[in-house]
């Protein structure tokens, strides 16, 4: 079949890399793609938020399966738009409609959803500019630290953890009164801080049936030891040593099943990925957030471990036949180290020449922010490459990924040198 992926990051390169391995994949397109996707697919120079252009690309390339990578087009309603085209109404799509994508598009919606269906999460309250003074009074009585979340999409930067009431009040005012996150911050969710250890579980749903994909742990802060500013993700590991079978069974019973049952009860036929950000607190799972798509860079460690034909898996999700698929997962450990531009996550320069990619062996370099320029590959984003290694032990996977991250070169290159080390210590 002919397949179109929407997106341009490391997640979409990982999708394209995995799909291209299937004998069921005839022609593969990515819109707009990057220098990495161009190696395994045809890039289409269209924006994934230009729904009319997406629909035209589906028609002109005889696409029979559409996979939506990023959250923004999902929240903006790309699936709804395609479904409204009479000639495309039956197109197979992996990705929820706008109603389902509210799980990520609105923190307030997701918190209320979890409360309605008894899904364990931190206690919270939501405020708007109209209730700013009530919110400030609420903060004064809140336990520390205080978590503040912009309600809408804020490119992974809409969460602030305030250590003092004064810091919380400043952040709260900046969001609601100072328009710090624009429309995304028109509502602010104030949340209890949970002490525990984080991981992510990924669910693929066909609207009724589901498959739980390999779990992963990502590293969000720019600096070693989880210090500095939040980023889109500096690395990831799968499997996660503290995600025991007992704990994952609790996740399935207390989180996955009630989430999918709740979606059905609300009339949402959810066909796509649900990323469940979890905190393990005293052996129990608590949901920090939902995302309506796969995580990045977690995708770059999850997909390499999948041994099931990825085209068959995606088609089954779109067709409602996931119950017919038996999923196979490699026991190997996958580790990805994200190599980023100098200055990221603040201001950074693009257009730096990337050298020594051809020297990398026994790893997969997933392109996140890259651009092909003749024979050269240039940096074209904050997160540039996600370099994934697989091995029979966590230590070896870490070593291989880190060695490759050291080897690749461009001006201003940064990467974290402690990805996975906390899990090695945890296992010890």
From TrEMBL:
**An example molecular function term from Gene Ontology annotations:** phosphoribosylamine-glycine ligase activity
Enzymatic reactions? 5-phospho-beta-D-ribosylamine + glycine + ATP = N(1)-(5-phospho-beta-D-ribosyl)glycinamide + ADP + phosphate + H(+)
Q: Where is the ATP-grasp domain?
A: 111-319
Any idea which UniProt keywords this protein has?
ATP-binding, Ligase, Nucleotide-binding, Purine biosynthesis
A Pfam family hit? GARS_C
The keyword Cell membrane is annotated on this UniProt entry: no
**UniProt name for this protein:** Phosphoribosylamine--glycine ligase
Q: What is the lineage of its organism?
A: Bacteria, Pseudomonadati, Bacteroidota, Cytophagia, Cytophagales
